[in-house]
Amino acid sequence: MSEAHARTAGSQSAGSKSAAAIDRAKAAGRKALIAYLPAGFPDKQASIDAALAVARNGADIIEIGIPYSDPVMDGAVIQAATTQALANGFRVADVFDIVAAVTAETDAAVLVMTYWNPVLRMGVDEFSRRLAEAGGAGLITPDLIPDEAAEWFAASDKYGLDRVFLVAPSSSPERVAMTVATTRGFVYAVSIMGVTGARAAVANTAQAVVAAAHAAGAERVCVGLGVSRPEHVREIAAYADGVIVGTALVAALRDGGVPAVGALAKELSTGFVPAAATPSSTTGASRQ
Amino acid sequence: MEDPATAFLAGGHGPDAGVPAHSLRHAPGPYFGSYGGRWMPESLIAALDELEDTFEKAKADPEFLAEVAELNKNYSGRPSLLTEAKRFSEHAGGARIFLKREDLNHTGSHKINNVLGQALLARRMGKTRIIAETGAGQHGVASATAAALLGMECVVYMGAEDCRRQSLNVARMQLLGATVVPVTNGSQTLKDAINDALRDWVANVGNTHYLLGTAAGAHPFPAMVRFFHEVIGEEARGQILDQIGRLPDAVCACIGGGSNAIGIFHGFLDDPSVKIYGFEAGGDGVETGRHAATITLGLPGVLHGARSYLMQDDDGQTVESHSISAGLDYPGVGPEHSYLHDVGRVTYEPITDAEAMDAFKLLSQTEGIIPAIESSHALAGAIKVGRRLTESVATPSDIVIIVNLSGRGDKDVETAAEWFGMLDENGHVKGTMLSTRSAKGATPAGSVDERTADENAEDATHE
């Protein structure tokens, strides 16, 4: 499998910070943990502290979400958090300070997740330039499909940024192939037809989405939506290259502050420990 | 490819020019100039593809077109009338004003044209559930109606603020068997209802069609919604030719998302002698910042799936719109309107709440027609256009204007009563609470004995 994927890896992942982070996790014998947190929630400094806490507790990639007035792909928890951030006076340019602060302190790759209009408003080139300057890895774009992304292709190439597009259970084979071919960093596999939010179980559609992306040549495919528990992480780690957690972390930050979000990241990363061993005995052993 | 509208303008078509070489009609999407497209989550692209495919096939299927035509005629009551508003015209500089009576359609507005078409498409796709957003409630009522007619489940998302402003329409939808979900996110109006409808659609796309109510959103919605409303312009064009033997000088419509407007405009886009006007909601006045004049003051951006003019701040956050009219209270606009604005074919202007309500009252009292507050924006605009166009002509009645009267005002009676100071401090219409009799079925305050006594007393009066 890896030989087949190596063909595309050279062209699409050279210099990719998020691909490098996933590969580092792989070299350490596990999969990548990708943590989403909204910028400016509960305030700017706390969002930086929370990102550092998850990075120090096992997250390989941090997604910093830009709060937006019309977040159609987000469920109630993230909507409430980003609405609060906006009410507290969050400005889009704050995200560059947050990215710079996080990249200065950790080795985690820092992606920005954003709906497209804030980027358009600033100017795609200008936004990309400032993101690269801040040390950002690239963008995850939930409402930008490759079909509409000509401007983003140009800017992401110019500034060496990752462009993480999504594939969904509903994506046709043609669209999966097109999306994989235009993605850099990793392919974001949407586990379920729905919006962000913690769910009791990982949808059984997720594995098929990952398999389709792999079959289309994607070397790195990570699963998000509805992932909230170590057992979800373990389940997904069996077939994907990374696991994306959002709502559960946002809820932890909301309810328990920075210590709680760090503790949850640590707990989630125990999901990468082989299920056959007991967590208490192998955590220490595997890290030595 | 040569831009048809640029060619249209470059040709210098004056009032006497012939048919333009390049048609602006039947623009297929997904792009209208640089507007339109699909700025949507990948999860929904397959559904949009399926819808586009189904629509394109249906459009070319005589059986489908006959089905739409039959419902338009025998269910909606089409063709809607074209009524000359003779007394109202006196207030528009003497220009002759004709009203395209979409208010007379079943459910009371133009919205029925689109919902019947889309509900039939949903059935063709095997979907059993439709969801819709609504502002004023007109589209929600129309959607609930179509769902009842075709035996489908219907869920309508409506901003909580709009539910308050249009509570009677909430009851109408419920009576028609629909579930109304009040949306308490954001500004609690139309844009937030669309957000929640999109969230529902992503999760339930297998059995659900999102019956979008305006000519906005991702492709194929703008071109498809226009297609089902083109009947307005086609009828109006034929009717005015029948009644006065020539085309009008101007056509006026109100613009929220812009579906009634694109429907009537479409009939006249290729007639260079016909000036076309779209009237946006100016709210408290565009200088106050409290308005919904998207094209007048917005900037291009992406919202709800399309690139179009958009009310947004320096960060690209959507700005909350304001209008007395729930149906125009939307910070975006359909992409074809953005294009028609940029190429100069249609003139877009704001109308304030106050101007619209003056026109609302004027039409009610000069013609005996209570218009929707949305449509009142078009009426107020027509008054301005009429005065302007008659300034330089010897015989004002030579100027002919068609106004799309997109809906009736029954739903707006409460808002209007409040606006015109017809309510007392308790919210009752003044002079309606003078009866000294206790209402039948009411439970008077007090003890059981007293109530029994009261009932006996009332019974006695009947005897």
TrEMBL record, chain A:
<keyword id="KW-0057">Aromatic amino acid biosynthesis</keyword>
<comment type="similarity">
    <text>Belongs to the TrpA family.</text>
</comment>
<comment type="function">
    <text>The alpha subunit is responsible for the aldol cleavage of indoleglycerol phosphate to indole and glyceraldehyde 3-phosphate.</text>
</comment>
<keyword id="KW-0822">Tryptophan biosynthesis</keyword>
<comment type="subunit">
    <text>Tetramer of two alpha and two beta chains.</text>
</comment>
<dbReference type="GO" id="GO:0004834">
    <property type="term" value="F:tryptophan synthase activity"/>
</dbReference>
<feature type="active site" description="Proton acceptor">
    <location>
        <position position="74"/>
    </location>
</feature>
<keyword id="KW-0456">Lyase</keyword>
<protein>
    <recommendedName>
        <fullName>Tryptophan synthase alpha chain</fullName>
        <ecNumber>4.2.1.20</ecNumber>
    </recommendedName>
</protein>
<keyword id="KW-0028">Amino-acid biosynthesis</keyword>
<dbReference type="InterPro" id="IPR018204">
    <property type="entry name" value="Trp_synthase_alpha_AS"/>
</dbReference>
<feature type="active site" description="Proton acceptor">
    <location>
        <position position="63"/>
    </location>
</feature>
<comment type="pathway">
    <text>Amino-acid biosynthesis; L-tryptophan biosynthesis; L-tryptophan from chorismate: step 5/5.</text>
</comment>
<dbReference type="InterPro" id="IPR011060">
    <property type="entry name" value="RibuloseP-bd_barrel"/>
</dbReference>
<dbReference type="Pfam" id="PF00290">
    <property type="entry name" value="Trp_syntA"/>
</dbReference>
<dbReference type="GO" id="GO:0005829">
    <property type="term" value="C:cytosol"/>
</dbReference>
<dbReference type="InterPro" id="IPR002028">
    <property type="entry name" value="Trp_synthase_suA"/>
</dbReference>
<dbReference type="InterPro" id="IPR013785">
    <property type="entry name" value="Aldolase_TIM"/>
</dbReference>
UniProtKB/TrEMBL annotation, chain B:
<comment type="function">
    <text>The beta subunit is responsible for the synthesis of L-tryptophan from indole and L-serine.</text>
</comment>
<comment type="subunit">
    <text>Tetramer of two alpha and two beta chains.</text>
</comment>
<comment type="pathway">
    <text>Amino-acid biosynthesis; L-tryptophan biosynthesis; L-tryptophan from chorismate: step 5/5.</text>
</comment>
<keyword id="KW-0057">Aromatic amino acid biosynthesis</keyword>
<feature type="compositionally biased region" description="Basic and acidic residues">
    <location>
        <begin position="448"/>
        <end position="463"/>
    </location>
</feature>
<dbReference type="GO" id="GO:0004834">
    <property type="term" value="F:tryptophan synthase activity"/>
</dbReference>
<dbReference type="InterPro" id="IPR036052">
    <property type="entry name" value="TrpB-like_PALP_sf"/>
</dbReference>
<keyword id="KW-0028">Amino-acid biosynthesis</keyword>
<dbReference type="InterPro" id="IPR006654">
    <property type="entry name" value="Trp_synth_beta"/>
</dbReference>
<dbReference type="InterPro" id="IPR006653">
    <property type="entry name" value="Trp_synth_b_CS"/>
</dbReference>
<keyword id="KW-0663">Pyridoxal phosphate</keyword>
<dbReference type="InterPro" id="IPR023026">
    <property type="entry name" value="Trp_synth_beta/beta-like"/>
</dbReference>
<protein>
    <recommendedName>
        <fullName>Tryptophan synthase beta chain</fullName>
        <ecNumber>4.2.1.20</ecNumber>
    </recommendedName>
</protein>
<feature type="modified residue" description="N6-(pyridoxal phosphate)lysine">
    <location>
        <position position="111"/>
    </location>
</feature>
<dbReference type="InterPro" id="IPR001926">
    <property type="entry name" value="TrpB-like_PALP"/>
</dbReference>
<dbReference type="GO" id="GO:0005737">
    <property type="term" value="C:cytoplasm"/>
</dbReference>
<feature type="domain" description="Tryptophan synthase beta chain-like PALP">
    <location>
        <begin position="78"/>
        <end position="403"/>
    </location>
</feature>
<dbReference type="Pfam" id="PF00291">
    <property type="entry name" value="PALP"/>
</dbReference>
<keyword id="KW-0822">Tryptophan biosynthesis</keyword>
<keyword id="KW-0456">Lyase</keyword>
<feature type="region of interest" description="Disordered">
    <location>
        <begin position="435"/>
        <end position="463"/>
    </location>
</feature>
<comment type="similarity">
    <text>Belongs to the TrpB family.</text>
</comment>
